[in-house]
Design brief:
The protein is of the alpha/beta class. It has a domain of 76 residues. It is 33% helix and 23% strand. The strands form 2 sheets. An 8-stranded mixed sheet has the order 6-7-8-3-9-10-12-11, sandwiched between helices. Strands 2-1-4-5 form a 4-stranded antiparallel sheet. Helix 4 crosses helix 5 and helix 5 crosses helix 6. The longest helix has 18 residues. The two termini are 30 Å apart. It binds adenosine-5'-triphosphate and magnesium ion. Adenosine-5'-triphosphate (ATP) binds next to strand 1, strand 2 and helix 1.
Length: 314
Protein backbone atom coordinates (compact mmCIF):
# COMPACT_ATOMS: atom_id res chain seq x y z
CA UNK A 1 0.00 0.00 0.00
CA UNK A 2 1.24 3.46 -0.93
CA UNK A 3 -0.28 6.40 0.87
CA UNK A 4 0.39 10.07 0.21
CA UNK A 5 -0.85 12.67 2.70
CA UNK A 6 -0.85 16.41 2.13
CA UNK A 7 2.13 16.20 -0.20
CA UNK A 8 3.40 19.68 -1.02
CA UNK A 9 6.25 21.07 -3.07
CA UNK A 10 6.87 24.77 -3.51
CA UNK A 11 9.84 25.68 -5.67
CA UNK A 12 11.41 29.08 -5.30
CA UNK A 13 12.53 30.60 -8.53
CA UNK A 14 13.54 34.00 -9.89
CA UNK A 15 16.81 35.76 -9.27
CA UNK A 16 15.73 39.31 -8.52
CA UNK A 17 12.33 38.61 -7.08
CA UNK A 18 11.83 35.33 -5.28
CA UNK A 19 8.73 33.64 -6.57
CA UNK A 20 7.10 30.55 -5.21
CA UNK A 21 5.88 27.95 -7.65
CA UNK A 22 3.25 25.85 -5.94
CA UNK A 23 3.93 22.79 -8.08
CA UNK A 24 2.18 20.36 -5.72
CA UNK A 25 -0.11 21.77 -3.07
CA UNK A 26 -1.50 19.33 -0.54
CA UNK A 27 -2.15 16.13 -2.48
CA UNK A 28 -3.46 12.98 -0.77
CA UNK A 29 -4.27 9.56 -2.18
CA UNK A 30 -3.84 5.86 -1.53
CA UNK A 31 -2.96 3.04 -3.90
CA UNK A 32 -3.83 -0.48 -2.81
CA UNK A 33 -1.10 -3.05 -3.42
CA UNK A 34 -1.34 -4.63 -6.87
CA UNK A 35 -3.56 -1.89 -8.31
CA UNK A 36 -3.02 1.13 -10.57
CA UNK A 37 -3.79 4.76 -9.90
CA UNK A 38 -3.78 6.87 -13.07
CA UNK A 39 -2.73 10.49 -12.59
CA UNK A 40 -3.94 12.86 -15.30
CA UNK A 41 -3.95 16.60 -15.89
CA UNK A 42 -2.58 19.26 -18.18
CA UNK A 43 1.09 19.94 -18.72
CA UNK A 44 2.67 21.68 -15.73
CA UNK A 45 -0.01 20.68 -13.20
CA UNK A 46 2.55 18.81 -11.06
CA UNK A 47 2.33 15.13 -12.07
CA UNK A 48 6.05 14.45 -12.49
CA UNK A 49 6.80 16.41 -9.33
CA UNK A 50 4.54 14.02 -7.39
CA UNK A 51 6.45 11.05 -8.83
CA UNK A 52 9.81 12.57 -7.94
CA UNK A 53 8.63 13.40 -4.42
CA UNK A 54 7.46 9.85 -3.78
CA UNK A 55 10.81 8.54 -5.02
CA UNK A 56 12.51 11.17 -2.84
CA UNK A 57 14.47 12.41 -5.82
CA UNK A 58 13.46 15.83 -4.48
CA UNK A 59 12.53 16.80 -0.92
CA UNK A 60 8.96 17.90 -0.21
CA UNK A 61 7.99 21.18 1.41
CA UNK A 62 5.45 19.29 3.48
CA UNK A 63 3.48 16.07 3.65
CA UNK A 64 3.90 12.38 4.17
CA UNK A 65 4.57 9.35 1.96
CA UNK A 66 3.83 6.00 3.58
CA UNK A 67 4.90 2.76 2.00
CA UNK A 68 3.55 -0.23 3.89
CA UNK A 69 3.25 2.16 6.85
CA UNK A 70 6.92 3.17 6.66
CA UNK A 71 7.21 6.97 6.54
CA UNK A 72 9.61 7.41 3.61
CA UNK A 73 10.23 11.10 4.18
CA UNK A 74 11.71 10.62 7.63
CA UNK A 75 14.03 7.75 6.66
CA UNK A 76 17.77 8.27 7.04
CA UNK A 77 19.93 7.87 3.93
CA UNK A 78 20.96 4.33 4.84
CA UNK A 79 17.44 3.11 5.50
CA UNK A 80 16.28 4.80 2.33
CA UNK A 81 18.96 3.04 0.32
CA UNK A 82 17.67 -0.29 1.61
CA UNK A 83 14.09 0.41 0.62
CA UNK A 84 14.85 2.15 -2.68
CA UNK A 85 15.00 -0.93 -4.92
CA UNK A 86 11.40 -1.65 -3.96
CA UNK A 87 10.27 1.57 -5.67
CA UNK A 88 11.18 2.33 -9.25
CA UNK A 89 10.35 5.07 -11.72
CA UNK A 90 10.07 4.79 -15.51
CA UNK A 91 10.51 7.98 -17.48
CA UNK A 92 9.00 9.14 -20.72
CA UNK A 93 12.06 8.78 -22.88
CA UNK A 94 13.78 5.37 -22.79
CA UNK A 95 16.83 6.82 -24.55
CA UNK A 96 17.68 8.99 -21.58
CA UNK A 97 17.22 6.11 -19.12
CA UNK A 98 19.78 3.84 -20.81
CA UNK A 99 23.50 4.41 -21.03
CA UNK A 100 24.30 4.54 -24.77
CA UNK A 101 27.77 3.06 -24.15
CA UNK A 102 26.45 -0.06 -22.42
CA UNK A 103 25.18 -3.16 -24.15
CA UNK A 104 21.69 -4.24 -23.20
CA UNK A 105 23.13 -7.14 -21.21
CA UNK A 106 25.49 -4.90 -19.22
CA UNK A 107 22.69 -2.45 -18.63
CA UNK A 108 20.46 -5.13 -17.12
CA UNK A 109 23.36 -6.64 -15.18
CA UNK A 110 24.13 -3.33 -13.48
CA UNK A 111 21.27 -3.26 -10.94
CA UNK A 112 21.87 -6.96 -10.21
CA UNK A 113 25.50 -6.15 -9.45
CA UNK A 114 24.92 -2.96 -7.48
CA UNK A 115 22.25 -4.43 -5.25
CA UNK A 116 23.81 -7.90 -5.05
CA UNK A 117 20.46 -9.41 -5.93
CA UNK A 118 21.74 -12.67 -7.45
CA UNK A 119 25.12 -14.36 -7.00
CA UNK A 120 27.63 -13.67 -9.77
CA UNK A 121 27.49 -17.12 -11.32
CA UNK A 122 23.72 -16.89 -11.73
CA UNK A 123 23.77 -13.43 -13.23
CA UNK A 124 23.81 -14.32 -16.93
CA UNK A 125 21.01 -16.82 -16.40
CA UNK A 126 18.99 -14.08 -14.63
CA UNK A 127 19.64 -11.64 -17.50
CA UNK A 128 18.39 -14.17 -20.03
CA UNK A 129 15.31 -14.73 -17.91
CA UNK A 130 14.58 -10.99 -17.62
CA UNK A 131 15.10 -10.48 -21.35
CA UNK A 132 12.54 -13.18 -22.02
CA UNK A 133 10.07 -11.81 -19.47
CA UNK A 134 9.95 -8.46 -21.29
CA UNK A 135 9.59 -10.09 -24.70
CA UNK A 136 13.08 -9.53 -26.11
CA UNK A 137 15.30 -12.28 -27.46
CA UNK A 138 18.78 -13.44 -26.37
CA UNK A 139 20.38 -11.92 -29.45
CA UNK A 140 19.58 -8.45 -28.08
CA UNK A 141 21.94 -8.94 -25.14
CA UNK A 142 25.04 -7.79 -27.00
CA UNK A 143 23.43 -4.88 -28.80
CA UNK A 144 23.54 -1.20 -27.90
CA UNK A 145 20.47 1.00 -27.34
CA UNK A 146 20.91 2.75 -30.72
CA UNK A 147 20.55 -0.63 -32.42
CA UNK A 148 17.12 -1.15 -30.87
CA UNK A 149 13.78 0.53 -31.51
CA UNK A 150 12.15 2.85 -28.97
CA UNK A 151 9.73 0.12 -27.94
CA UNK A 152 12.54 -2.43 -27.52
CA UNK A 153 14.51 0.04 -25.44
CA UNK A 154 11.50 0.64 -23.20
CA UNK A 155 11.41 -3.15 -22.72
CA UNK A 156 15.04 -3.02 -21.64
CA UNK A 157 14.15 -0.30 -19.14
CA UNK A 158 11.42 -2.58 -17.80
CA UNK A 159 13.87 -5.50 -17.54
CA UNK A 160 16.26 -3.31 -15.52
CA UNK A 161 13.44 -2.35 -13.23
CA UNK A 162 12.26 -5.95 -12.82
CA UNK A 163 15.82 -6.90 -11.88
CA UNK A 164 15.27 -5.06 -8.60
CA UNK A 165 12.07 -6.87 -7.87
CA UNK A 166 10.13 -3.69 -7.02
CA UNK A 167 6.74 -3.43 -5.33
CA UNK A 168 5.90 0.02 -6.63
CA UNK A 169 6.48 1.36 -10.13
CA UNK A 170 5.91 5.00 -10.95
CA UNK A 171 5.49 5.22 -14.70
CA UNK A 172 5.75 8.79 -16.00
CA UNK A 173 4.34 8.88 -19.54
CA UNK A 174 6.19 5.62 -20.29
CA UNK A 175 4.78 5.23 -23.78
CA UNK A 176 4.23 8.76 -25.02
CA UNK A 177 7.37 8.76 -27.17
CA UNK A 178 6.30 5.56 -28.96
CA UNK A 179 4.11 4.84 -31.99
CA UNK A 180 0.54 3.93 -31.17
CA UNK A 181 0.92 0.24 -32.07
CA UNK A 182 4.13 -0.11 -30.06
CA UNK A 183 2.47 1.81 -27.25
CA UNK A 184 -0.22 -0.85 -26.99
CA UNK A 185 2.38 -3.62 -26.79
CA UNK A 186 4.24 -1.94 -23.94
CA UNK A 187 1.00 -1.22 -22.08
CA UNK A 188 -0.04 -4.85 -22.43
CA UNK A 189 3.35 -5.97 -21.22
CA UNK A 190 3.04 -3.70 -18.19
CA UNK A 191 -0.38 -5.13 -17.41
CA UNK A 192 0.92 -8.70 -17.72
CA UNK A 193 3.87 -7.92 -15.47
CA UNK A 194 1.55 -6.40 -12.90
CA UNK A 195 -0.56 -9.54 -12.83
CA UNK A 196 2.49 -11.73 -12.54
CA UNK A 197 4.37 -9.76 -9.88
CA UNK A 198 1.53 -7.89 -8.16
CA UNK A 199 3.12 -4.48 -8.83
CA UNK A 200 1.50 -1.32 -7.57
CA UNK A 201 1.49 1.35 -10.30
CA UNK A 202 1.24 5.10 -10.24
CA UNK A 203 0.62 5.72 -13.91
CA UNK A 204 1.14 9.31 -15.07
CA UNK A 205 -0.20 10.31 -18.46
CA UNK A 206 -1.90 12.97 -20.58
CA UNK A 207 -3.65 10.31 -22.54
CA UNK A 208 -7.15 9.47 -21.32
CA UNK A 209 -7.38 6.39 -23.54
CA UNK A 210 -4.22 5.02 -21.97
CA UNK A 211 -5.35 5.71 -18.44
CA UNK A 212 -8.71 4.12 -19.12
CA UNK A 213 -7.00 0.85 -20.09
CA UNK A 214 -4.39 0.91 -17.36
CA UNK A 215 -5.95 2.35 -14.22
CA UNK A 216 -8.25 0.94 -11.54
CA UNK A 217 -8.63 4.43 -10.12
CA UNK A 218 -8.00 7.85 -11.60
CA UNK A 219 -6.84 11.07 -9.98
CA UNK A 220 -7.39 14.29 -11.91
CA UNK A 221 -5.03 17.12 -11.11
CA UNK A 222 -5.29 20.85 -11.75
CA UNK A 223 -2.56 23.35 -10.80
CA UNK A 224 -1.02 21.31 -8.01
CA UNK A 225 -4.23 19.92 -6.50
CA UNK A 226 -6.48 16.94 -7.05
CA UNK A 227 -9.93 18.00 -8.23
CA UNK A 228 -11.43 14.54 -8.59
CA UNK A 229 -10.47 10.98 -7.72
CA UNK A 230 -12.36 7.73 -8.01
CA UNK A 231 -12.77 4.37 -9.70
CA UNK A 232 -11.96 4.60 -13.41
CA UNK A 233 -15.49 3.58 -14.25
CA UNK A 234 -16.97 6.37 -12.08
CA UNK A 235 -14.62 9.09 -13.26
CA UNK A 236 -15.21 8.29 -16.93
CA UNK A 237 -18.89 7.56 -16.62
CA UNK A 238 -19.96 10.06 -13.96
CA UNK A 239 -17.34 12.82 -13.96
CA UNK A 240 -18.51 15.53 -11.58
CA UNK A 241 -15.83 18.18 -11.62
CA UNK A 242 -16.17 20.69 -14.49
CA UNK A 243 -12.45 20.31 -15.23
CA UNK A 244 -12.72 16.52 -15.55
CA UNK A 245 -15.80 16.96 -17.73
CA UNK A 246 -13.90 19.38 -19.97
CA UNK A 247 -10.93 17.01 -20.29
CA UNK A 248 -13.21 14.14 -21.22
CA UNK A 249 -15.22 16.09 -23.74
CA UNK A 250 -12.06 17.53 -25.33
CA UNK A 251 -10.76 13.97 -25.74
CA UNK A 252 -13.98 12.78 -27.38
CA UNK A 253 -14.07 15.76 -29.70
CA UNK A 254 -10.69 14.84 -31.10
CA UNK A 255 -11.87 11.41 -32.16
CA UNK A 256 -13.10 11.21 -35.74
CA UNK A 257 -16.82 10.52 -35.92
CA UNK A 258 -17.32 11.20 -32.23
CA UNK A 259 -20.62 12.74 -31.25
CA UNK A 260 -20.43 16.48 -31.04
CA UNK A 261 -22.93 16.93 -28.28
CA UNK A 262 -22.44 18.44 -24.86
CA UNK A 263 -19.18 20.21 -25.38
CA UNK A 264 -17.68 21.73 -22.29
CA UNK A 265 -14.95 23.85 -23.71
CA UNK A 266 -12.37 25.30 -21.42
CA UNK A 267 -12.07 29.03 -21.74
CA UNK A 268 -8.82 30.89 -21.31
CA UNK A 269 -5.28 29.88 -20.58
CA UNK A 270 -4.21 27.86 -17.58
CA UNK A 271 -3.02 30.34 -14.97
CA UNK A 272 0.57 29.75 -13.86
CA UNK A 273 1.35 28.09 -10.53
CA UNK A 274 2.93 31.40 -9.46
CA UNK A 275 -0.06 33.71 -9.92
CA UNK A 276 -2.46 31.16 -8.48
CA UNK A 277 -6.13 32.27 -8.56
CA UNK A 278 -7.81 32.85 -5.19
CA UNK A 279 -10.49 30.50 -3.88
CA UNK A 280 -11.02 27.60 -6.26
CA UNK A 281 -8.01 27.66 -8.55
CA UNK A 282 -10.15 26.50 -11.47
CA UNK A 283 -12.61 29.41 -11.21
CA UNK A 284 -10.97 31.52 -13.96
CA UNK A 285 -11.91 28.87 -16.52
CA UNK A 286 -14.98 27.34 -14.95
CA UNK A 287 -18.37 27.43 -16.66
CA UNK A 288 -20.11 27.05 -13.25
CA UNK A 289 -18.29 29.86 -11.47
CA UNK A 290 -20.12 31.82 -8.76
CA UNK A 291 -18.86 34.44 -6.29
CA UNK A 292 -18.13 31.86 -3.63
CA UNK A 293 -15.62 30.15 -5.93
CA UNK A 294 -13.40 33.23 -6.02
CA UNK A 295 -13.18 33.33 -2.24
CA UNK A 296 -13.47 29.86 -0.83
CA UNK A 297 -11.33 26.91 -1.82
CA UNK A 298 -13.36 23.69 -2.14
CA UNK A 299 -12.22 20.57 -0.32
CA UNK A 300 -12.28 17.10 -1.83
CA UNK A 301 -15.60 15.64 -0.67
CA UNK A 302 -16.73 12.04 -1.05
CA UNK A 303 -19.88 11.87 -3.14
CA UNK A 304 -20.12 8.11 -3.43
CA UNK A 305 -17.98 5.15 -2.33
CA UNK A 306 -14.42 6.27 -3.03
CA UNK A 307 -15.42 8.99 -5.54
CA UNK A 308 -14.21 12.40 -4.30
CA UNK A 309 -14.76 15.78 -5.96
CA UNK A 310 -13.52 19.28 -5.04
CA UNK A 311 -16.25 21.66 -6.25
CA UNK A 312 -18.79 23.85 -4.42
CA UNK A 313 -21.48 23.03 -6.96
CA UNK A 314 -21.83 19.31 -7.48
N1 LIG B 1 13.06 22.27 -10.26
C1 LIG B 1 12.04 23.12 -10.47
N2 LIG B 1 12.17 24.43 -10.17
C2 LIG B 1 11.16 25.29 -10.35
N3 LIG B 1 9.94 24.95 -10.84
C3 LIG B 1 9.77 23.66 -11.17
C4 LIG B 1 10.79 22.67 -11.01
N4 LIG B 1 10.31 21.47 -11.43
C5 LIG B 1 9.05 21.70 -11.83
N5 LIG B 1 8.71 23.00 -11.68
C6 LIG B 1 7.41 23.61 -11.99
O1 LIG B 1 6.42 22.90 -11.29
C7 LIG B 1 5.24 22.77 -12.07
C8 LIG B 1 4.88 21.31 -12.22
O2 LIG B 1 5.85 20.65 -13.02
P1 LIG B 1 5.73 19.11 -13.40
O3 LIG B 1 6.95 18.75 -14.18
O4 LIG B 1 5.46 18.33 -12.18
O5 LIG B 1 4.46 19.11 -14.34
P2 LIG B 1 3.78 17.89 -15.16
O6 LIG B 1 2.36 17.82 -14.73
O7 LIG B 1 4.62 16.67 -15.02
O8 LIG B 1 3.83 18.44 -16.66
P3 LIG B 1 4.04 17.62 -18.04
O9 LIG B 1 2.73 16.99 -18.32
O10 LIG B 1 4.37 18.70 -19.00
O11 LIG B 1 5.15 16.64 -17.84
C9 LIG B 1 5.54 23.47 -13.39
O12 LIG B 1 5.03 24.77 -13.33
C10 LIG B 1 7.05 23.48 -13.43
O13 LIG B 1 7.51 24.59 -14.19
MG1 LIG C 1 5.67 15.50 -16.39
Amino acid sequence: MLEVNGLTKHFSSGILQKQHVKAVDGVSFRIKAGTTLGLVGESGCGKTTIGRLIMRLIEPTDGQVLFDDIDLLTLKKRELRKIRPRMQMIFQDPDSSLDPRMTIGTSIAEPLKVHGIVPKHERSQKIRELIKTVGLSPEHVNRYPYQLSGGQNQRVVLARILAMNPDIIIADEPTSSLDVSVQAQILNLMKDLQKKFNHTYLFITHDLDVVRIMADRIAVMYLGKLVEIGETHDVFGYAKHPYTQALLSAATRMKPGAERKKQTLLKGETPGPIDMPSGCRFHTRCPRKKNRCMIEEPELVEIKGGHHVACHFI
